[in-house]
Write a structure and sequence with these properties.
Blueprint (H helix, E strand, L loop, with lengths): L7 E3 L6 E3 L3 E6 L5 E4 L7 E6 L2 H9 L2 H6 L5 H13 L1
Helix pairs in contact: 1-3
Length: 88
C-alpha cells in the first residue's frame, strides 16, 4: 500500500519546518480581511505559526506576520491569536 505524503510548512517565527497539521495558519483573504484558519481551507495569502506561545508572541511583536502577509495586523486578529495562546 502507498504511503501518503505529509505536507510540510515553515513557521514564519522560528523557521522550523513542521507538518502542516501541527501549525496555525493566518490568512489574508482576497477582500482584505484577516482570519485564523483552523481547517486550512480558506483561500488567500497564508502564513504559518507554531502552536507555541513563544512563536505566536514573536510573530506578532517582531512584525513577521505583517511582512509575510503584506498587510498590517488587525487588532481583532491579534486578540484572537492571544486567546489561542491561552487555549494551548
Amino acid at each position: 500500500m502507498k504511503v501518503k505524503k505529509v505536507p510540510m510548512r515553515t513557521c514564519v517565527s522560528c523557521n522550523q519546518s513542521k507538518p502542516k497539521r501541527d501549525l496555525l495558519r493566518v490568512v489574508r483573504c482576497p477582500d482584505g480581511t484577516m482570519v485564523v484558519d483552523l481547517k486550512g481551507k480558506v483561500s488567500g495569502r497564508g502564513a504559518y505559526l507554531c502552536r507555541e506561545r513563544e512563536c505566536i508572541e514573536r510573530g506578532i511583536s517582531n512584525r513577521r506576520l505583517e511582512r509575510v502577509l503584506e498587510h498590517p495586523l488587525d487588532p481583532e486578529l491579534v486578540q484572537t491569536l492571544l486567546e489561542t495562546i491561552h487555549t494551548i
